[in-house]
């Protein structure tokens, strides 16, 4: 056996395409153990975990925690486009670990805060708030949109779930009013996620192409690339509009959650958009809250680039619950 | 001395007009001690508390907690229209109590949940969620608008602060779009509180009077009364619009906070509006969240009528922190 029994924990991050699995000693990921598996090549969570355990010399882990890009309720998780059974019983059966936990991936990334390498964090706005250990807020921009507030309570970190991607899209400008009518016709109810996600950027691009002869559908990566190359005015308009809606939404949710210790953007779409936030007016949109404009200066905003943050978060969560 | 020393706690609720003060034994308010003082007749918090303590025979309390209709940060509170110094030091000095706490009044009312007389709660929507001890959400409708999520963590109840009244007003209908333009011209940035508060109802009434010859300004109580009497169509339109915006806002904030154990409406305006929620379409507006329409059936909504809920909450908070 390559590892001594019951000294390590198993952590996993199940995304839309890949599942990443690793071993952790306390809060520390063992980087040499991080392994990526294509979901389509496996029939179940058991299948993936058993393969990983075998590859690690039949490791006997003490606890196991997985992060899921989807809602988790009562120890059960569900993901669109993946029919794996994901619940505590399946996890315990596959991992043979004594303690198990399932977290939403944004909650997991929230548990990673404070345990990530400093270079994985890029500051976008320096807020004036000097409270260093109060509330933070994760904002996840990827296949979907969601947030997770990260509360530091007298008894430790607490990160409740949320479905914030499905609330009303904020309408602030004449352009937003047109977008709202456009989404209304297309989706019935215009939500944040209709604009702020991979698909959302594509929706915005289609909207900004309206009336342009011969405009073709483009995927999110191409829209960002064409904006950066300066070769498609509709792509530039779409990215600018995305950034301004993101500023407004982050500002609204900051007033709801009061993250005086900072807002953290995570996820694939956030990594692609982060370099364009300042050029396209993120800060102005974030601060445009009427008489609360000055108050908005309290909040810091940073982007997190660590691809393994959810794994680190799972490790930190197991460690903190073991000591609770 | 009328009360034995160090057996009772002092609790107070400082509202915009009156301050209520009472004694509590553990979580139980002593109803015969509840006393109401007009703020304008007193120059400071010390002034009010010293008078109360004297009236109670010079009671020597063990702990003191006050609830404030305003933001609380780092043990300091501030209220519009009241220049009293309200901080932990002043409270300790005035009460001579060993332990002190200051809560926002919505947070205090959240701590009262589970300790109020059953008759103070009127069910408005029966949700399908069967989770009885998860998250609840307080929605306060009075001079202002705010929410407080009430989380049940493994280590006890946790109620973070919020400034949710100042986020973007949701825009769902053609009428909302007109209202948004109207508020935009008047206030610069249309927020929830511009519609959902005492002043908010007056703003809505003015909007629905547009173009009506000789329309006079009416206060919130008159608008509700005239709607109930059926003598002013603009008042009826204003109350209906208020109820529909409230439904939409409660639905959005429910998706953010996931209160599977219920939503609780509190505050003076909520007590006045609660009887009209079903007649004016609260439920439809609450559920109108596109593909999340079915999911919205999870949530229960109730109105709380207890005028002393914040006092009970202060007592419960002191009791729970004494045992933490």
TrEMBL record, chains A, B:
Keywords: Kinase, Transferase
GO CC list: cytosol
GO biological process, one term: glycolytic process
GO molecular function: ATP binding; D-glucose binding; glucokinase activity
Keyword Transferase in record: yes
InterPro entries recorded: ATPase_NBD (IPR043129), Bacterial_glucokinase (IPR050201), Glucokinase (IPR003836)
Membership in a protein family: Belongs to the bacterial glucokinase family.
Protein name listed in UniProt: Glucokinase
């Amino acid at each position: 056996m390559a590892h001594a029994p019951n000294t390590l924990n198993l952590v996993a991050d199940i995304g839309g395409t890949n599942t990443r699995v690793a071993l952790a000693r306390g809060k520390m990921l063992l980087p040499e153990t991080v392994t990526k598996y294509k979901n389509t090549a496996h029939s179940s969570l058991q299948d993936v975990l058993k393969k990983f355990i075998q590859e690690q010399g039949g490791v006997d882990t003490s606890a196991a925690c997985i992060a899921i890009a989807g809602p988790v309720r009562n120890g059960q998780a569900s993901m669109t486009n993946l029919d794996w059974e994901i619940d505590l019983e399946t996890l315990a059966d596959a991992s043979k670990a004594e303690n198990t936990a399932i977290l939403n991936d944004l909650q997991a990334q929230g548990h990673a805060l404070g345990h990530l390498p400093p270079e994985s964090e890029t500051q976008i706005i320096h807020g004036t708030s000097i409270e260093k250990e109060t509330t933070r807020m994760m904002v996840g921009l990827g296949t979907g949109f969601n947030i997770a507030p990260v509360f530091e309570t007298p008894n430790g970190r607490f990160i409740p779930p949320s479905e914030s991607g499905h609330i009303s899209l904020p309408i602030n400008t004449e352009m937003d009013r047109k977008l709202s009518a456009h989404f209304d016709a297309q989706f019935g109810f215009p939500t944040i996620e209709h604009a702020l996600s991979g698909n959302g950027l594509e929706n915005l691009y289609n909207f900004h192409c309206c009336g342009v002869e011969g405009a073709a559908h483009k995927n999110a990566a191409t829209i960002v690339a064409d904006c950066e190359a300066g070769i498609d005015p509709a792509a530039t308009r779409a990215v600018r509009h995305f950034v301004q809606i993101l500023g407004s939404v982050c500002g609204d949710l900051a007033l709801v959650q009061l993250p005086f210790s900072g807002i953290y953007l995570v996820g694939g779409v956030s990594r692609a958009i982060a370099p364009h936030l300042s050029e396209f007016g993120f800060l102005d949109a974030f601060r445009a809250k009427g008489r609360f404009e000055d108050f908005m200066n309290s909040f810091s905003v940073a982007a997190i680039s660590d691809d393994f943050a959810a794994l680190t978060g799972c490790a930190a969560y197991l460690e903190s619950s073991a000591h609770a």
